[in-house]
Amino acid sequence: MSNFKQRAKEKVNEWMREGISPSRLSVTLALGFSIGCLPITGVPTVLCLVLAILLRLNLPAIQAANFIAWPAQLIVVLPMVRLGHWILLRFWGHELKMSLASGDSWHSLLGVVGNVAANLIIGWIAALGPATLILTVAFYFILRKIPLSADA
């Protein structure tokens, strides 16, 4: 077994020996991973911290999932921007302008960056619920199969 897999299995065993059920741990990991996919530096870490405190989740587990999701941040940027753009067009009939046609000023550039960021956040919010649900179910079935050992 690879070193990463072995360490992950040991960590899961440690959390479950502390009394976290597989269902609670799967929700914690799914939330951490889903929130960790928001590609705005620092925001996922703070959101995970707040959720862990409010929902009384395992803070190391949610932050571990958040940090593991970092590579996914890069992968989901374009799909989330496109999803947000589609939602704005479909449900609000509003298209954010994505061009610098008004000039080459920094003001125009900030407008474009703001529009892309708005599309990204709207797309991420729309995908958050379904992604968390799917990940929760997947993590639950995986965690159920990991035997709880006393000496891990």
Kindly summarize this structure in a few lines:
The protein is mainly α and 152 residues long.
For the biggest sheet, the summary is: none
Shape: elongated
The fraction of residues assigned to DSSP E strands is under 5%
Secondary structural class: mainly alpha
How much helix is in the residues? over 70%
Order of helices and strands: HHHHHH
Describe this structure in words.
This protein has helices at 3-17, 22-36, 43-55, 59-68, 70-92, 106-145. It is mainly α. It has one domain (3-145). Helix 2 runs antiparallel to helix 3 (43-55) and helix 5 (70-92) crosses helix 6 (106-145). The model has no long low-confidence stretch (mean pLDDT 84).
Give the key terms.
mainly alpha
Question: What's the structural blueprint in terms of helices and strands?
Answer:
Elements (H helix, E strand, L loop, with lengths): L2 H15 L4 H15 L6 H13 L3 H10 L1 H23 L13 H40 L7
Helix pairs in contact: 2-3, 2-4, 2-6, 3-4, 5-6
